[in-house]
Amino acid sequence: MAEVLVLIDHVAGQVKKPTYELLTLAAKLGEPSAVFIGGADGAAGAAEAVKGYGAEKVYVIDDAQIKGYLVAPKAEALAQLAASASPAAILLPSSAENKEVAARLAIKLDSGLITDAVDLDESGVATQSVFAGNYTVKGKVTKGTPIITVKPNSAAPVEKAGAAAVTPFEVTISDAAKTAQIVASQPRKASGRPELTEAAIVVSGGRGTGGDFSAVEGLADALGAAVGASRAAVDSGWMPHTFQVGQTGKTVSPQLYVANGISGAIQHRAGMQTSKTIVAVNKDEEAPIFELVDFGVVGDLHTVLPAVTEAVKAAKG
Amino acid sequence: MNIVVLVKYVPDATADRQFEDDFTVDRVNVDGLLSELDEYAVEQSLQIKEKREGEEITVTALTVGPEAAEAAVRKALQMGADKGVHVVDDAIAGSDAIATSLVLAKAIEKLGPVDLVVGGLASTDAGMSVVPAMLAERLGLPQVTLASVVETQGDQVRIKRDGDVATEVIGGTLPLVLSVTDQSGEARYPSFKGIMAAKKKPLETWSLADLGVDASQVGLGAAYTAVEETAARPPRTAGEIVTDEDGSGAKALADFLASKKFI
């Protein structure tokens, strides 16, 4: 059975959940091989982690020549691995950076590319959600080695023992790929909350918070949820852009989305309307967000949310 | 200094966007306009020109698209770009990002030598966010992309890039490919003067033959992916809406969450 390469999503060797989702999807297409690009010290831990999700091989690519530069060296490394392994497909977790890596890889390998898949079947047909979530599109790569970026939460990870045979892979990075230098890097502060795109529950705030996110954060923490924000809240400087849900921010598809003080403009809907269950709290009963919700409360989020938070805490004991 | 800014004509996101029978995006029956996210690319191109006072700088707005796509170039000219190029050819219809990036690369080579290629975060229709990276790959230029802040000095470009795990400062040397996000700064509205001046600005129309691109390399037939099915998502139906009175809203919401097993 042909190999399917899965790029491991990790921070300093700490493997993130979308990797397991991709390994699960990869098993539909062939034999999953995980690809670790990182520091040598993180490889063993990462290999151990992916072993539990069916990875038969773990290619380890040392990132000494890669980590100081933007995108291009990673694409070069994956192209060299693809030339050697002749995989049936290459799957990458959908992130801004990985989509750019996939873009360059597609040109290098003269292969088709599908971005932001939300599902993948045995025949390689990928499902995408397009036009602000108003349409579902199914399609497949018809030329070269399919390169597919897959969004978080697209599959339930299935635990399955794999051999996870560690296979070091040497790459040669050209000088041409080292022309966009990472001059400085400031790691994002850990919030202690789940990642926005990976969370099962997202609690968001918008203009209606008036800049005070304490009620939103309080409910999020009681529910074990991630915190999101509308563009209005981000543009007002209340929350960093990394929290933005919408067309120009993150697209989320959690089990539960709670929109607070968010009117529900198309740009916001584009980022959340495929959520399973949607709840909104808004003072304005005319707010378009109420057209989408499974349950809505017309009221002041600053009084409603703390009371709900108390009820959640009480229920959880 | 030559700056080329990439502008895409897209169906209006606030209209009812739809697909043609061959699953390509309907670009005729839905009102189109310059992709909102490309306005930020035009803005940053103009700001670079304005900040580098005293230098000879030309900002060229480049689009690939059907007849109507000229409107995207026009808007860029109204905002302040100096000239426009519209690549239009029947054979291009249905092109994927791979073919589009090929046509753009050939057009940029024809415009050359180009110092800076500037794109937006993503188109508001396909939204793949891959064309700047593909162009950097094709043109063999440094890729300095997804900037929330852009600074240039001499032949050096520095950007701030807000990644998922870190905020980075990326540096590169001209010529290079730059892309900017909607965080890079509000795009200007065309002034009345700008709108009048745009009418006299040069706007060239190029065909595939002008670029030396064979029709077999582009269009739906040359696409590296095939859509098998499109389906409108069933509209969400509004559920129960209650009005909060003295805490009744919170109780009802908590009950709903409990009924759905979230608490």
UniProtKB/TrEMBL annotation, chain A:
Similarity remark: Belongs to the ETF alpha-subunit/FixB family.
Function, as annotated: The electron transfer flavoprotein serves as a specific electron acceptor for other dehydrogenases. It transfers the electrons to the main respiratory chain via ETF-ubiquinone oxidoreductase (ETF dehydrogenase).
Subunit composition and interactions: Heterodimer of an alpha and a beta subunit.
Gene Ontology molecular-function annotations: electron transfer activity; flavin adenine dinucleotide binding
Cofactor note (record): Binds 1 FAD per dimer.
Keywords assigned: Electron transport, FAD, Flavoprotein, Transport
Annotated PANTHER family: ELECTRON TRANSFER FLAVOPROTEIN ALPHA, ELECTRON TRANSFER FLAVOPROTEIN SUBUNIT ALPHA, MITOCHONDRIAL
Origin superkingdom: Bacteria
UniProt xrefs under PROSITE patterns: ETF_ALPHA (PS00696)
Residue span(s) of domain Electron transfer flavoprotein alpha/beta-subunit N-terminal: 4-186
Residues binding FAD, per UniProt: 207, 230-231, 244-248, 261-268, 282
Gene3D superfamilies: HUPs, TPP-binding domain
The protein's name: Electron transfer flavoprotein subunit alpha
InterPro entries reported for this sequence: DHS-like_NAD/FAD-binding_dom, ETF_a/b_N, ETF_a/FixB, ETF_asu_C, ETF_asu_C_CS, Rossmann-like_a/b/a_fold
Any GO BP annotation: fatty acid beta-oxidation using acyl-CoA dehydrogenase
Named cofactor requirement(s): FAD
SMART domains xref list: ETF
TrEMBL record, chain B:
Keywords: Electron transport, Transport
Domain Electron transfer flavoprotein alpha/beta-subunit N-terminal as annotated: residue spans: 22-215
Any one annotated GO CC term: cytosol
GO MF annotations, alphabetized: electron transfer activity
Cofactor: FAD
Protein origin, superkingdom: Bacteria
Subunit structure: Heterodimer of an alpha and a beta subunit.
Protein family according to the UniProt entry: Belongs to the ETF beta-subunit/FixA family.
Function in brief: The electron transfer flavoprotein serves as a specific electron acceptor for other dehydrogenases. It transfers the electrons to the main respiratory chain via ETF-ubiquinone oxidoreductase (ETF dehydrogenase).
Annotated PANTHER family: ELECTRON TRANSFER FLAVOPROTEIN BETA-SUBUNIT, ELECTRON TRANSFER FLAVOPROTEIN SUBUNIT BETA
Name of this chain's protein: Electron transfer flavoprotein subunit beta
